[in-house]
Amino acid sequence: MMIRLVETGLVLFAFGGLIILVGGFARKPLWKEIGALIAAIMGPLTLACCWFVLLDIRQNETVYWARLMAGDAADFFATGSLGLIVGSGLAVGVLSLENRLASLRVGAIFLALSWIFLFLHPTPHYVPIPGWLDKLVWFMVLVGGAGICVVVFRKLKDRLRSFSMPLFILAGIFPLLSLVTFSAHKQAQVFLDLGSMPMEQRLSMIGCLACHSMNGEGQSNPGGGLEAVMSRTEDDLRGFLLEPTDQNAKQFNIRENPTGDMAGVHLTPGQVNALLEALSKVYGFRQPVSKDVSMEGVESILAARSCLACHSVGDRGAAGGGVGGTLEDAAKLGQETLHAWLLNPSADNAKQLGIRENPVGAMGNFALTEEEADVIVPWVLSLKRK
Ligand code: HEC
Ligand code: HEC
Which residue's CA is minimally distant from atom 39 of ligand 2? Predict the structure, then answer.
């Protein structure tokens, strides 16, 4: 039902844009004002409905959401959203250059109040800034925008008259642009035949990069770098991807404290096979090892945490040192840095400790405990090349 509301809102919003254009070109100020009023009311309302819809589908139809955010439908979706957000602001802008305070008041109030929806509900997409900053940005855009329009009306209207023409043209075009959102939703419903696509595209088209990064591209929050699969076995990954709930993340040793954010990702077995093939071609998986209970100390940690899936030592481990490099090179970091790193091997920490300028961030989920670090650090130091 919410989707129908959004669709109706978009159509009315675009209709408002059309009337602004017709009124502007036919020199009928009243039409222009009515069009701008429709767009200024429908824009913020539709934006608020969109927000709810996105929150809901992120939870339940995560792949659909991910395709809108970062997959094959992302360009359409971004264009449509731009039309909706900018168009709403411009509509109030058009009103600020007209003579009637009443319409401007209504438009500015709708624009400013729409901020409340964005404030009360979490951002339905992952953005690389903290939550409070995200809310502040929206506050500045929506409430600030409405405020500026009122100031323009009161103080600057006469001086800005010459902008009236380009402004109404833009204010007419952006709402029409928002109709591209329909194409985005259409695209996101098309079944993706992953098996026929090149390897990396399989992962990007279906939207995995909305929550994961791959070679530094995409969102590393909340899923982390897909490089992490190098230390997993194919069986564990298959088990998890077929039903990626938080229980399964635990059961298949993916996370000790899972978020469960992938639980709404429903993939067919065929899609899981195609994605696993892509992950294994791009990164490769660890071979299953039978844990040798008699192993102690360093060897047992290396095996349990599969460090050598991403690193090499001597002639063992990942080819060419792997994504993480040879451990002999790490000896020069010194005792303190090594210790701090192994307890918290996040991308941020890699920068802070001077380990990498552009970290891959792949080691984030392989932190050692104090006791393990006490075993591994002296061992790494002992690898120092003489
Ligand atoms: C809504 C965000 C989200 C989307 C979309 C998403 N993931 Fe995830 N993914 C996560 C989270 C979070 C985890 C860690 C498990 C947890 O916390 O529940 C994870 C874990 C994984 C893992 C295990 C990583 C490891 O550490 O070994 C793989 C593999 C994976 N995802 C693949 C995919 C693929 C393939 C797609 C695209 C179809 C995808 N994910 C889409 C959030 C997401
Ligand atoms: C999924 C891949 C992966 C796994 C598994 C992994 N690492 Fe790493 N490691 C990396 C990456 C990548 C870096 C470089 C930092 C970055 O780019 O985020 C790194 C950096 C390091 C460094 C610093 C290296 C330097 O050149 O300065 C040490 C030491 C290290 N890892 C030890 C370990 C140990 C010990 C384990 C097992 C407990 C382990 N790593 C498991 C990927 C991994």
Answer: 307
